[in-house]
Amino acid sequence: MFFEWQNIHGSVTPRTYICGYCGDKVGPDKAYFAEYDKPAIGRVQLFIYICSSCRQPTYFDSDDRQWPGAAFGARVHGLPPDVQELYDEARRCMSVSAYNTAVMACRKLLMHVAHERGAGEKKNFKQYVAWLVENHYVPPGGEGWADQIRGKGNEANHEIDLIDQHTAEQVLSFTEFLLKFVYELPARVGLSATNQPDAV
Predict the structure, then answer these.
(1) Contact 106, 149 (CB under 8 A)
(2) N or C: which end of the chain has fewer CB atoms below 10 A?
(3) In a structure prediction context, what are the per-residue pLDDT tens digits for the chain, which is 200 residues long?
(4) Which part of the chain is CATH 1.20.120?
(5) What is the pTM of this model?
């Protein structure tokens, strides 16, 4: 298969997407493009759009899949550097369909949160999650979520069964809510995370 990318100055149909680099919703109307004949399908087009916010390239293949994909979930403000790094890593894993890796990153992330909040070292994952619940870092009624991420994290790490997209999205969504509860919300009302009330 051989094709050549055409000049970016050519006008193309505008495309709205979430940029996988900066996270902004953009709608550029200029792109590099290429065409080729795909067996059993016919003529197909490929595009590389340039983000109007950060100017980074995003590739759309013949099946309209986006590379890099948009990171799953929302940004969370006020995170410590190591927690931020793990959360961003989990979100990026989701953007390339690496669901098992995303869940394992969330598992490690919860251990970091517990340790950073004062749980100490050398605990296993179950003990760290229990510590978060017992010390009210999990929102009221969220104990079931915590148990699910514990279970799915163990599956991703120790079982042969693979984690599917839906399960990974659930785990990452819970992780996002937990991080907002522990870090972002206290920062918005002027509390340090270490001075949160024992219960809400």
Answers:
(1) yes
(2) N
(3) 555 656 665 667 889 999 988 888 999 888 888 888 888 778 888 899 989 888 889 999 888 889 888 888 888 999 999 999 999 999 999 988 899 899 889 888 988 999 999 998 878 888 888 898 889 888 777 777 777 776 666 665 556 578 889 989 998 998 998 999 999 988 777 755 455 544 33
(4) 81-190
(5) 0.71
